[in-house]
Every structure is written in structure tokens, then in C-alpha cells.
Design goal:
Residues 28-154 form the AB hydrolase-1 domain. This protein is of the alpha/beta class. Helices cover 38% and strands 22% of the residues. The two termini are 31 Å apart.
């Protein structure tokens, strides 16, 4: 594990990362999803793509990259753009799982790999809608502290800055960003994914002109059991 301090908009960020095959000339950058970390991605993919320099990153606020700042998806992309520039990365291939898929898309790599990416707004369950409505009511009358009772257990463990970040990014509609992506994209999905539905994956594939869509029998973390096939498809897709 290594760490690099970078400055973006006069704020310091300490980024934890791992390199695999450090002398390779072509880069394979991997971004984890919300609440995850680089280790999950490294455990899945590090045994493959031997001719590529793997760059596994803990995004700020996750894993071993702490931050006290409130962030947005575009700011995440700006931070990682600077970080990759300092590593002299040519952004050949960037893979992003779930939330990391949105950040990867903004980085505009030569080849984009999406793994059950977030970015398509889906219909919320009725009980979730009720919690949102109640929270908005209490916020409107100055009793925002009460809304903590309606947060999920995962959200309640977040720091205040990361909860603010979560609110910034959770309901983003990324359809225009996917449509604007002009390079080649490989889109991989779990057919039993309940976090980002299979229909969302097909929608993203329809928005990105130069894309290929492949699905597997699996859930939101389908890639863990299918990494070998995914990597072979990546190799075959790149001249």
C-alpha cells in the first residue's frame, strides 16, 4: 500500500492506493463502489491482466483515504484526475463498480468498464418514499435532527461530511453523462442485482453509442466470481 497527498481547490487529500505490475506501460485503473474499498476490487482482479499496470484506489472517505470534506461526484472526478496525473497515468482503462462507475465515466478514459454502475434513477419502494417525506417535513420545520431516526444503519455509521456527500450523490441522474461518453465502453452486470437493476444496465448500454453489454448470473458483486471472464473480454476488446 502507498499513499499520495494531493491538493485540489486548496484542500489536501491523502489517497491510499496499490499498484500491481508497476512496470507495465498500459494502465488499468479500478474504482470501488459506495461504502467499499480498493481491497475488494484488488482481490477480484489482481490475478489477471498481467500486461497492465493495475491502480487500485481508496476514494476519499473510504478505506484508508480519510477526509473531513463534503464531496460531490464531479469533485471526486477532479481529485482522481489530479491523482492519476501525478502517477503519469494515461487513463487507458478505468473500471468502476456501482458509484465508482459514475466517477469513472467523468474521467473519460480510452476504455470505460462499468460494473453494475449507479447513475440511473430507479423507482423507490413505498416505505422509502414515506421516510423521505417525513424527513423533509421535519427539516422544513427546523427539526432536522429527528431525521436521524429514519436513516438506515449504514447511513448512521457515516461521519457528517460523508452523510452530506451521500445526499449530494445518491439521487444523481447520469443519463446525460453516459450519453456524452464517446469512447468504447464495456458494461458488465449481475442478472440478480437488486442494488442497480439489470434494466438500468441495459439503459446505460443504450445511452453509450460504442458499448457492449454482458450480464452474468450474480448479484451486485457478480464480478468477484466472474473476474477472469471479464478480464479476458477486456483484453479481447482492446487492439
Amino acid at each position: 500500500m502507498a499513499k499520495k497527498s494531493i491538493k485540489v481547490d486548496n484542500k489536501e487529500y491523502e489517497i491510499s492506493y496499490d499498484l500491481v505490475n508497476p512496470s507495465a506501460k498500459v494502465d488499468f485503473v479500478v474504482l470501488h463502489g459506495w461504502g467499499s474499498n480498493k481491497e475488494i476490487m484488488k482481490n477480484s482482479f489482481s490475478s489477471y491482466l498481467k500486461d497492465y499496470r493495475h491502480i487500485y484506489i481508496d476514494m476519499p472517505g473510504f478505506g484508508k483515504s480519510p477526509t473531513s470534506y463534503e464531496l460531490t461526484t464531479h469533485l471526486y472526478a477532479k481529485i482522481l484526475e489530479e491523482f492519476l496525473s501525478q502517477l503519469n497515468s494515461s487513463k487507458d482503462i478505468i473500471a468502476g463498480h456501482s458509484y465508482g462507475g459514475k466517477v469513472a465515466t467523468l474521467l473519460k478514459p480510452k476504455y470505460l468498464v462499468l460494473l453494475s454502475s449507479a447513475g440511473i434513477l430507479e423507482e423507490k419502494a413505498f416505505d422509502v418514499k414515506v421516510k423521505i417525506a417525513i424527513s423533509k417535513f421535519f427539516n422544513s420545520i427546523g427539526l432536522g435532527g429527528i431525521t436521524k431516526a429514519f436513516r438506515s444503519k449504514d447511513v448512521n455509521t457515516m461521519s457528517e461530511n460523508m452523510y452530506a456527500t451521500f445526499k449530494n450523490v445518491v439521487n444523481e441522474d447520469f443519463r446525460a453523462n453516459f450519453k456524452a461518453f464517446e469512447n468504447q465502453a464495456l458494461i458488465f452486470w449481475g442478472e440478480k442485482d437488486t442494488a442497480t437493476s439489470l434494466d438500468s444496465g441495459k439503459k446505460i448500454a443504450s445511452l453509450i453509442n460504442n458499448s457492449t453489454f454482458i450480464s452474468y448470473d450474480g448479484d451486485h458483486y457478480f464480478f468477484a466470481k466472474n473476474a477472469k471472464d471479464i478480464c479476458e473480454r477486456i483484453e479481447n476488446a482492446i487492439p
